[in-house]
Amino acid sequence: MQGFLPQKVPSKSYSVQSGSCDRIQEIASNLPKLLLTGKVQSTINKLSPKDLSIDDLLINQASQDLKLAMSHLSFIAHAYIWGDNKPNESIPSVLANPWVKVAGNQGRPPILSYASYCLDNWFLIDPDEPISLENVGLINNFLGGVDEDWFVTIHVCIENAAADAIAACAEISMVETDSPEKESIELLNRIVISMKKVNEIFARMPEKCDPYIYYHRVRPFIFGTKDNPDLENGLIYKGEFENQPQFFRGETGAQSSIIPSLDGALQITHTKDHLRHYLNEMRDYMPPKHREFMEVLEKNSQIKKIINGSEKLTSLYNDCLEEIRAFRAMHLEYAGTYIFKQAQIKNPFGRGGSTITGTGGTPFMAYLKKHRDETEDQKK
User: What is the dihedral of CA 30, 24, 125, 205, to 10 degrees?
Assistant: First the structure.
């Protein structure tokens, strides 16, 4: 296990003996039933102030426990916000306080982000078998079911498949301009092979994730509060932030560190506009170590100088860009199928959300087209 997945398989339970942690885990585990019966809000509202306390976890500082708490509380909070026909504009202090605390510990805002939705939200069905689409289960769900599980599992397996590409990126950033050509050939080839595996996995999304189910029963729970017309006044975390409304981006694949790392290592640039600003903003929602890793790649990579004048390296470099372009093109295709087309179908359950704005609060079709085309344009 490498890349941006945790080095250890995420834990499904807490190592600390704590009544409040047991309660957090119980509520998170019951979310599908609580959402189905409309009892998320009433369950949270009747809790006492310390019922969801994570103070024991903060004292113990066990990394896996804190990541689990961040994921549990993020799922519970989003179920609370988005579980009614209309979103709740505030969350009670019993939930807001521990969520803000654990988010601060994790170096991310108190909102459901990709790290808690995907990177830290899985386990191996058979611990003796490797990560695969047939061997990954999810720790947390909203409504649950095949489509929701498959959507997240695809992303977990993409992260795993990209691991060698990410390792190669780290090595590329250390290659000098006078290093032997064969070193760069090997590294670029590893990226191509790894990204082909990523694209093969991504292509399997439609097998078990139906666009209608995704749009109406998966997507509504992962929205944020920034640039969201359904929560235009933001979200109040009672007892936190001086009770002033907060605006945070929702969970989105743009918070994965894979593509930004490849952009950095391969020196793929994007024009400076509001979409580029959005992309940089997404780093605030990534684990701090992932942000630092990308900054090192961007600062140190000299790959364009290294490939200059070499037909073999230029060809391999273009192969890398083609796999990244193919990934971005597939993402664009899915956006049309899973969001735009579904917006035309009457919704009997929940909300699909804005058809122009993505879950992260960006005009996603323009964003995806732009970065696909810029990747293509930078082939040598």
Answer: 70
